[in-house]
Automatic annotation (TrEMBL):
It comes from the Bacteria. Residues 3-110 form the CENP-V/GFA domain. Keywords: Lyase, Metal-binding, Zinc. This is GFA family protein. Pfam families: GFA. It comes from Spongiibacter nanhainus. SUPFAM superfamilies: Mss4-like. Gene3D superfamilies: glutathione-dependent formaldehyde- activating enzyme (gfa). Belongs to the Gfa family. PROSITE patterns: CENP_V_GFA. GO terms for molecular function: carbon-sulfur lyase activity; metal ion binding.
Length: 137
């Protein structure tokens, strides 16, 4: 399966091959700082599964993760955590219905507890190099 992720202005397009490795909401301090949001929808893929097929997005780093954004509308399209074998695409850019989060991660940084029926990991799940430690909310 190949799908497209587009920024809101339509200039920058990503082509994504195959299924995501994982989908979740990230509460890390880096996501909060660059987005001005409490947490972000993230869809993870192997690095070679994601290609830029239209637009000339620019990359910058504020804290830790290099992030790539549309040159025209400024929307962050994806980030590439240093040393990680995956690329983190913003879940809200996927075609409708394709973002199906299974957890919240990096909840140790959460602005506020989010109470829902998904698991709330303190850091990352063990499957992504974390400890599987959970928050008590
Ligand atoms: Zn994050
Ligand atoms: Zn754009």
């Amino acid at each position: 399966m190949t799908q497209e992720a587009k920024c809101p202005c339509g200039e920058t397009t990503l082509s994504i091959d195959g299924e995501p490795i994982g989908q979740f909401f990230c509460h890390c301090d880096d996501c909060q700082a660059v987005a001005g949001a409490a947490y972000l929808p993230i869809s993870l893929y192997p690095r070679d599964a994601v290609k830029i097929t239209a637009g000339e997005p620019v990359q910058w780093t504020y804290k830790t993760n290099p992030r790539t954004r549309c040159k025209t509308c400024g929307t962050v399209m994806f980030s590439e955590p240093p040393g990680a074998p995956f690329i983190a695409v913003k879940g809200n850019l996927l075609p409708e219905g394709q973002f199906k989060p299974s957890s919240h991660v990096m909840c140790q940084y959460a602005v506020r507890p989010v109470v829902d029926d998904l698991p709330h990991f303190k850091g990352f799940p063990a499957a992504f190099g974390g400890s599987d430690e959970m928050m008590d909310w």
